Amino acid sequence: MNKEFYIMTEACPALDFFIYIQNIYGNQTKKSEYRFPYMIREYAFSQNFEDSYKEKWAETVQLVAENRFNGEKLFYNHKNFFFEGLFMDHTSFNEVYQSFKVWWQSLTGELAVTRTVDEEISNIYRDLPESSPRKTLFVQVIYDDCFLGDLMSQPYFCIVTMEQCLHGKEKLLQFVRKSMR
User: Fold this and answer.
1) What pLDDT was estimated at residue 71?
2) The model's pTM
3) Contacts of residue 124, Cβ cutoff 8 Å, sequence gap at least 6
4) Of 157, 126, 122, whose CA–CA distance to 139 is shortest?
5) CA within 13 Å, CB half, 159
6) Strand, coil or helix: what is 138?
7) Which residues pair with 140 in a beta bridge?
8) What is the pLDDT of residue 177?
9) Which end of the chain, C or N, has fewer beta carbons within 10 A?
10) Helices and strands (H and E) in the chain: how many
11) pLDDT at 155
12) Which residues of the chain have pLDDT under 50?
């Protein structure tokens, strides 16, 4: 098949770290049903956590949409970005950061997130029109829903959850097509 565009599927550590933090917060405050990771210990989240989260999530999505390497740089080189406005103490933050980092760098982290959806992304690629422009569509995969922020798509950039990829080819195809306009 000779298409004029490509799909690049990746999992971004900064975006998935936000989901990890969100899920710990949600479990702790009963904002959702229990989600991974389930932690017994309570962490010191800031009082304006949800507002700060939404702002930082939107900023990170914009940075990653501008350059897909920004998410990796942000996660590994600018840890303080995640601390400020989200956590009240460094002990809580450092424990959550290290826990995520160990998971992310294991076989059940980044590799599992990206490889789980390979076949589904390949299937929608085949269904996209032959006349698509010469562009690369960047698809960032996150491991769970973002219930505190929006899965904003931008031209030739979208964020999808593993669940979106695994449960509903037509909806996934529609969602991806929207980002190609």
Assistant:
1) 94
2) 0.93
3) 7, 169, 172, 173, 176
4) 157
5) 27
6) strand
7) 10, 159
8) 85
9) N
10) 9, 3
11) 87
12) 1-2
